């Protein structure tokens, strides 16, 4: 799997620059012309299956400002996980891994007005939101930038 | 499959970035993820927390692709052989690589990488990997989609909560309706209990129906605010745009119903009593 990612970059000769290349592979670019093949595990990429196995955390933290951290993660889990997995266990493990336990009940708040979560916790919530779906591949677009 | 962190070549404070990257590294190991990160000006410590690097020159051409090695030694020795210069022990490997690329031309680096042993090993590994994958049956999970009503229920609950926690929006609607009600009440104040009065009452009801639409238009305000969230979640397959719209619509109904009840009860004294008495 890992090596096939390198393969993508090798064959497809994307006439684009780095974050764009990542967008193309992750399937988040809708405009423009993409040439070459995108393969996953040796098979042509299918949008439906690909979405179920990858997580993409954007550079901007796009979060609903009126929900708490726990509610945000729980909403994603409820929407994207099947009912026969232990959602609470997954949510708890993601919160622990992302070290968000001290913020669980905090309302996200408007970033521009400086309310709610600090920036680093926003970043981690954005990533946690993707992790809760239990992806096989995780894309992070400049996680260390503002 | 071993966990891999993989970097592709803007910023948070050093401590904040360390918090975020520490959490990423932890989850990658714990969840056995493949994590692809684009990064801008990483610190030495952050850079060395990655396993592999894909460095792209302009045009998406590969200038380096492979392991960093312990303390980035594999990467540094490749670029040392390219430039003839070697970095000081304390130098940031990311800065060193970029300074080498700045000194020479990127085309040269791309060509050198193509000839290198790392690239040859990589190509044969890719070929072997493809062959192996082609001989195996496909094992990717299929897309999971929630039942329409479950999805709708979740969206309705969230949207209702958002409106409850954003009282300024509900207050705006309330004051618009209350203001309109007051003006309407003044216009049709003290209408007579006869046929002419009944015509006035019908006109008032007609008018009120139109005026009630105005606070409903305020529904567009939270949607503008929420648009980016909708795009992100719909694209990642969290829900469909249709259910989102429906959830938004239905979450609005209780608030509008309350508004309408207030409006009607304020006016009922003069307008509706006429119609009731006439009967």
Would you kindly provide a written description of the structure presented here, covering whatever features stand out?
The complex is a heterodimer of chains A (146) and B (279). Chain A is mainly alpha-helical and 146 residues long. Chain A has two domains: 2-45, no CATH class; 69-140, no CATH class. Chain A has six helices and four strands. In chain A, the strands form two sheets. Chain A has a two-stranded antiparallel sheet. Chain A has a two-stranded parallel sheet with strand order 3-4. In chain A, a hairpin with a 2-residue loop joins strand 1 and strand 2. The model of chain A is unreliable at 1-18 (pLDDT under 50). With 279 residues, chain B is an alpha/beta fold. Chain B folds into two domains: 4-135, no CATH class; 148-278, no CATH class. Chain B is 67% helix and 8% strand. Chain B contains twelve helices and four strands, in the order E-H-E-H-E-E-H-H-H-H-H-H-H-H-H-H. In chain B, strands 2-1-3-4 form a four-stranded mixed β-sheet. In chain B, strand 3 (52-57) and strand 4 (61-67) form a beta hairpin. In chain B, helix 3 (73-83) runs parallel beside helix 4, helix 7 (148-165) packs across helix 12 (241-278) and helix 8 (167-187) runs antiparallel to helix 9 (195-211). Chain B is elongated and about 105 Å long. The termini of chain B are far apart. Residues 139-143 of chain B have low confidence and may be disordered. Classes of the chains: A mainly alpha (146), B alpha/beta (279). Chains A and B meet through helix 1, helix 2, strand 1, helix 3 and helix 4 of A and strand 1, helix 1, strand 2, helix 6 and helix 7 of B.
